[in-house]
Every structure is written in structure tokens, then in C-alpha cells.
Write a structure and sequence with these properties.
The structure holds 2 protein chains of 2 kinds. Chain A has helices spanning 3-11, 36-49, 76-92, 108-114, 146-155, 180-191, 206-209, 213-221, 237-245, 304-307, 310-320, 336-344, 347-354, 404-413; strands at 22-26, 29-32, 63-66, 96-98, 123-126, 140-143, 157-161, 165-171, 200-204, 230-232, 264-269, 276-278, 286-288, 299-302, 328-331, 357-358, 379-382, 398-401. By secondary structure, chain A is of the alpha/beta class. In chain B, a hairpin with a 4-residue loop joins strand 5 (119-123) and strand 6 (128-131). The longest helix of chain B is centred in the middle third of the chain and has 9 residues, at 89-97. The radius of gyration of chain B is 16 Å and the shape is globular. Classes of the chains: A alpha/beta, B alpha/beta.
């Protein structure tokens, strides 16, 4: 068995599972946020009307709640959702609630690793499609809707069809101007937005071994854009050290059997990769950044669970240092802990000196919710993960997805810019 | 189930266009329905027939965000089923587990032959869709055994785990 199969077999009390088996797996931990949380509350209300007992959660210590999409509230519906969520947390005794403006807070998928909430080998589900992110720690991490999350919160288990695994091997270390974002855009361009549908996308090889954990997170995060059920990377010493540093006590890691099966193996040589951009209106619509040097943009957005981790801010700051941005540039760190670190290390000063805006940690404009939503005529280079029509605002607005290096270089020039071409 | 087709000759219809992000704060189902397909088709609601309508689309319908608002908005607009060449996985689960609408997989060739405003009759027991307008019939992909049971029960919460025989699992 490969690692996803091993995790699902263990979680469903079986010696072995094979692709296409359907299992009810026990859940180790679960998350909802200020969009899926109120969605779950709505499901609970419906269940109560049908006489289904919702008085107790399966385990309030294994569920955490994040406020990240519509905070700080821009209007009264969002504010009401936050109040609703607070009452829910209190009623059920949920122990971990990352409240906006109170201690640690930020994007749910960032908190899961910043706070060391998920361990290798665990089954983690969240009410958000980018829950795949956390598979970079060697867990089975998978996004679900509101009904499924309500079921998990009451029963502690859910059904899964055991996926087939696509293995993506990166041979060799990425060069300084290439990031994990470029690799995953290249992969999505190659296999398409349904190329990983219903499958696991696993990453391995010498390039992954050499890659810092935060960069690996970009890969698993965007497996969602290829339709994957989960993205996963076998935990190693780097993962262990990362988790210890973030307050977790990592357990034994799950390793694949020597005869583990992968339905398809893709090989990428780091030496052949270059800065990539996904043009509107799909993450699979890729082109080398250099080929788009004539594309004028009027906004740069450095944010989201994909593109505003500490390593992303460091990459962007490295480019921006000593320059001025020539277009509106928003930097929205993915968690308050990251914003603090970025301040301590002088990155925030660098962004401010360049003329950029610093937003407080939230999903922000990534999902078109608030804080920098795009107007009809706006063209944005963004470190986020999706660029469907209307994703970041007006249906006619355009988003070019890119790495923090490309976004930062483009913020300086006002055109899509490969960091190597920055004078 | 009988319904009139609203056809989108497109692959990868994502949940951001089915229900744009700014509406995710809304959890009133009727209100969500008023914004269904806002990112793709401003005439969507005028196309819905009172007897029920069926969306027909290409590959990877419902990709992107996990928002259950998407099947909710479609279902509460009067969409009883989506026939697509393939579905994105979370959208598919949400349709079935929440019992909002039927996600039915059809062949590309049948997708091509169905026209906007055709009247279809769906028979999930026999995995057949009858095109009443064109007087033809399409074989649909059978539901996996668990999915069929959840649909029959009326959603995941009405499904009783005791009705689940794991030996069924590999029969599709």
C-alpha cells in the first residue's frame, strides 16, 4: 500500500484497502470556518427539525474553528455569522477557536500547520476545498461540504472512496528564481483542472526532499485546483522538525510499502522549470512569465493560504527590497503569527517602504469576499490559487496566478515580470 | 423525474460561477437561490420551468470551492438534476449527501446530442435517461452502491450504516 491507502486502511480498521474500495474512516481532527461553520449550523437546524439528536459533538477537542473569510466583518450578515459561530463553539464546548483579533488567528489552512494541529498519518477533514493543504505534513487531508462536516462533527467518521495515487517526482533542487508555485502551475497546466480528479496527488523525489516544508504546502494546497481528493507528501525529518518547532509532538510516520502502487508516475526535472503564470480564467491556462512580459497589470496581491506563508513573504521581500511598487500592491499575511515574524525580520518595513499596503490576516480578496476585491477593469497578478471568472471580484476582472517572486517583480514593473528580468 | 434541459456547452463550470464568493456569508437557501449561476448566465432563472429543470454540462462540473451553497442554490432554484460528462468530487458528494439534486454522469456523445430545452425523463433505478423531445435514450453511469443507497435514503443523515454492506464496495 502507498501512504494514502495505509492511512485510510488504519482509519477504517482494515488490514488493507485498494483503490475504489469505499470505507467509513475514523476522523482524527476536523475544522470549520466562518463560511462552513454557519453552513454546518444550518444543517444542524434541519436535523433538529427531523428529530435527529444534535445535542453532543463526537469530540469537541478534535474540532477547531477558524474565522478567516469574512473578517473583520464588513457588514452585518458576516458579523451575525461570527456571533452565531461563537454561540456554537460555546454550546458544544469546542476547545480551539481562533478568534479574529484575539491571540493567534488567520487562514484555517495556515493555522493547521502554524499551530501544529495535524500530525503525519492522521485523517483530517475540513469544511473547505483547500484542506488538501495539510497533506504536506504526511496526513490524509481532504475538503468536505457542510452536510459531510456536520456528519463528521456528530459521528467522528465519514465515507471515502479510496483514491488511486498519481505520483509526481521532482528530480533535483529548484533554482533560486523558481518556487513550488511554478512547479504546481506547470503540473496543473500539464494534467488540467480535472487531471487529479478523485485521485491522490503525491509528491516525492530529491527536489521534494530538499524543499522546505512551507514550500511543500504550496504543492498540496493546489492539488485542489487539479480536482484531487488529497495531496500528500511522506513526512521526513524536515516535517518532524517543522512540527516540533510549531509546538506539536510528531508521532511515527507512515511509510509506503516497497511494492506500493501508483496509477501513474510523472517526472519533472527541476532544471527545466521556470517561473510560470496561469492566465485568466483557469489555473491550467499556463504560460512562462517571460512570454507575458507585455501584459500590463494594475494590481498585485500577495496573500492567501497558498501564497502568504512566511517563506512567501520572504521571497516577495527579497525582490521588492530597495524598489518602489508601481501599481497597487496588497500584502496580506496568512496568519498573525506570520505577520509578527515578518515584522521582526524587517519584511513589513520593506513592503511599506516600497509603498505597498499591509492587510491583516484573512482570506481577503482571494475568494472575492472583501479587502481588495477587483473591479471590472482590474487586472491582478496574485499569489492565490484560483482565477475562475469572478473569483476575486467582478466577473470581467482578470487574475494572473503566480509565485511570490513573480508577483513582487510584477508589482515593481506594472507588467507580468520574470524575476530574472528585473533590472 | 421529468425536467427541461438548460444546457451549458462548457467544461469546468466551477462553484465560483455557480454561486460567487461574495454570497458565501448567506445561509438562507431561498436567498442563495436568487444568485444561482450569477457568474455564468444572467438569464438562468428565466429558463427554469415550474415542473423542474435539469442542467446538462460537460466535464468536471462543480470544480473549485467546496461550498455547499452551490448545490443548494441550484436545487432551490428548481434544478432537480445535473447531467454532466464528469463531476468535481466535493460538488458530487454535496449533491448526494445533502440530498439536494441528482448528479448523473453521461457519455460525451450523449452530452453532444442533448439540446437546450429538450425534455428528459430520468430513471435512476435503471440508469437510463429518456429524451422525450428527441425520442431517444441514453445509458447513464450507474451510481456506486453506497451512493445509490444514500440517494435512496434521502441523504447521508437518513442513511443507516447498518444498510451498508462493505462487500458491495467493489461492485462498480
Amino acid at each position: 500500500m502507498n501512504i494514502t491507502e495505509k492511512i485510510l486502511a488504519h482509519a477504517s480498521g482494515k488490514n488493507s484497502v485498494s483503490p475504489d474500495d469505499v470505507v467509513f474512516a475514523d476522523i482524527d481532527c476536523a475544522m470549520v470556518h466562518d463560511v462552513s461553520g454557519p453552513g454546518v449550523i444550518k444543517v444542524f437546524e434541519k436535523l433538529e427539525k427531523h428529530g435527529i439528536d444534535t445535542s453532543k459533538l463526537w469530540n469537541p477537542n478534535k474540532i477547531w474553528v477558524a474565522e478567516d473569510h469574512f473578517v473583520p466583518s464588513a457588514e452585518k450578515t458576516s458579523a451575525a455569522n461570527i456571533t452565531k459561530l461563537e454561540k456554537f463553539v460555546t454550546k458544544y464546548g469546542i476547545t480551539r477557536h481562533f478568534k479574529y483579533g484575539l491571540g493567534q488567528y488567520g487562514i484555517c489552512h495556515t493555522l493547521s500547520h502554524e499551530e501544529g494541529l495535524v500530525l503525519p498519518g492522521q485523517v483530517y477533514v475540513g469544511g473547505d476545498s483547500h484542506t488538501n493543504t495539510t497533506g504536506a505534513l504526511g496526513a490524509f487531508a481532504c475538503g468536505l461540504g457542510h452536510t459531510d462536516m456536520a456528519y463528521v462533527m456528530l459521528n467522528g467518521r465519514i465515507w471515502f472512496k479510496v483514491p488511486e495515487t498519481l505520483l509526481f517526482k521532482l528530480n533535483g533542487e529548484l533554482s533560486d528564481h523558481v518556487m513550488a508555485k511554478d512547479l504546481i502551475l506547470q503540473i496543473i497546466g500539464d494534467i488540467g483542472t480535472d487531471g487529479g480528479a478523485y485521485n491522490t496527488m503525491q509528491f516525492a523525489g530529491s527536489g521534494i526532499d530538499a524543499m522546505p516544508v512551507e514550500e511543500r504546502i504550496t504543492l498540496t494546497n493546489m492539488t485542489t485546483e487539479a480536482g484531487a481528493k488529497n495531496g500528500i507528501i511522506e513526512a521526513d525529518e524536515k516535517t518532524r522538525q517543522y512540527l516540533i518547532k510549531h509546538g506539536a509532538k510528531p508521532n511515527d510516520t507512515v511509510h509506503a510499502d516497497s511494492d506500493a502502487e501508483y496509477v501513474k508516475v510523472y517526472e519533472y526535472d527541476a532544471v527545466n522549470l521556470e517561473p510560470m503564470v496561469a492566465k485568466p480564467f483557469s489555473p491550467q491556462n499556463i504560460a512562462p512569465a517571460r512570454d507575458l512580459a507585455s501584459v500590463e497589470i494594475n494590481k498585485a496581491y500577495i496573500g492567501s493560504c497558498t501564497g502568504a506563508k512566511m517563506s512567501d513573504l520572504e521571497a516577495a521581500a527579497r525582490i521588492i527590497k530597495g524598489h518602489k511598487v508601481s501599481i497597487r500592491t496588497e500584502v496580506v499575511p496568512a496568519a498573525i503569527s506570520i505577520l509578527k515574524k515578518a515584522m521582526d525580520r524587517g519584511l513589513i518595513q520593506t513592503f511599506l517602504d516600497a509603498g505597498a499596503l499591509i492587510g491583516s490576516p484573512t482570506c481577503g480578496a482571494c475568494c472575492g469576499a472583501h479587502m481588495g476585491v477587483l473591479g471590472a477593469e482590474e487586472v491582478c497578478v496574485s499569489t492565490t490559487n484560483r482565477n475562475f471568472p469572478g473569483r476575486m471580484g467582478h466577473i470581467e476582472s482578470q487574475t494572473y496566478l503566480a509565485s511570490p517572486l513573480v508577483a513582487a517583480a510584477s508589482a515593481i514593473t506594472g507588467r507580468i515580470t520574470d524575476p530574472r528580468d528585473l533590472a | 423525474m421529468i425536467g427541461t434541459v438548460i444546457k451549458y456547452d462548457k467544461d469546468n463550470i466551477d462553484t465560483d460561477v455557480i454561486i460567487p464568493g461574495m454570497y458565501l456569508k448567506i445561509h438562507d437557501y431561498a436567498e442563495l437561490a436568487t444568485h444561482a449561476m450569477e457568474g455564468l448566465d444572467s438569464d438562468f432563472h428565466s429558463k427554469i420551468k415550474s415542473g423542474g429543470s435539469i442542467i446538462v454540462a460537460g466535464k468536471n462540473f462543480g470544480c473549485g470551492s467546496s461550498r455547499e451553497h452551490a448545490p443548494i442554490a441550484l436545487s432551490h432554484s428548481g434544478i432537480h438534476a445535473v447531467l454532466a460528462v464528469s463531476f468535481a468530487r466535493i460538488f458530487y458528494r454535496n449533491c448526494v449527501d445533502g440530498a439536494f439534486l441528482l448528479p448523473i454522469e453521461i457519455k460525451s456523445i450523449d452530452f453532444a446530442s442533448i439540446s437546450d430545452r429538450d425534455v428528459l425523463k430520468i430513471d435512476i433505478e435503471n440508469n437510463v435517461v429518456k429524451n422525450v423531445t428527441k425520442n431517444s435514450e441514453y445509458k447513464t453511469r450507474p451510481f456506486a452502491p453506497l451512493i445509490a443507497k444514500i440517494i435512496k435514503a434521502g441523504g447521508l443523515f437518513k442513511f443507516n450504516l447498518k444498510d451498508w454492506d462493505e462487500n458491495d464496495a467493489n461492485s462498480v
